[in-house]
């Protein structure tokens, strides 16, 4: 029977994505996040309680216990992550353990054979006019209601623009050092008590160099499988690296002058020999389609408009890059494009399209 320990309002929001300007200590930033995004956090808690039960038959109290197994690794990595989570819980008037579970939600739920999405791409000069990093974020349609934008100014001078879900302190975005990260979920049964994926993403965005970012998540530091596409334009060098990660193994590809792209399965022969993953056919379809779209521009200079066109592509519907509701699937089985993002790392800009990029509900522009 599903746990009833959480009982939050699940009404549709009437506004667009909230933009939270956060500064000060980690705890202060968290508390403000909790206060300003209380509605989105409560929706996330309610939504993930239902999702954990539906996908894994896990009640909320069990999910909390699973999340608590990561505390030591989080503390060893960066105690400020825990302080920020504590601040969110205080600001939103919920338990610390509840917010911790949101930040470990991939480790709790992403270990089954379900439908997933997300298509990411990096284009470096001279193929791109600028250093670009972009992706669609595909997830349960209902979870779109929890989206927030965080504009973070850390005490050490690092500034971060990020799109995330209420209560989750790491996801997709870029920083003022011209460094950005995209995420592709990969389902695998392998999991440890190391750093949860979303906190690994935050540690990447806390980094000043690509080398520092790589080190934060390589060599078994991440608790479950994922793909992280990281890129940086730091004036002297423009480079992108794709990191296929698992708790025991990782593999990388990089480019300084061309492109990388990824969907929701491991491409590494090494990792595929070592690990058993659950991959849906749509991941291969989207990967092949992105390759075709990029190669069609092989002799041209790729622009932001070109990349928006790629992210808006509907070839192979319902397995397209830009994903719409599949009425043959339930909300728990289906994934739609909840937002798309294009980061211009050269000019320190980030363009966010809420909803499907082919016809966004709203567009947002962030810059440092």
From TrEMBL:
Domain Peptidase C45 hydrolase intervals: 130-357
Domain of life: Bacteria
Cited InterPro entries: C45_proenzyme-like, Peptidase_C45, Peptidase_C45_hydrolase
A Pfam entry, by short name: AAT
NCBIfam families: C45_proenzyme
Full protein name: Peptidase C45 hydrolase domain-containing protein
Organism: Cerasibacillus terrae
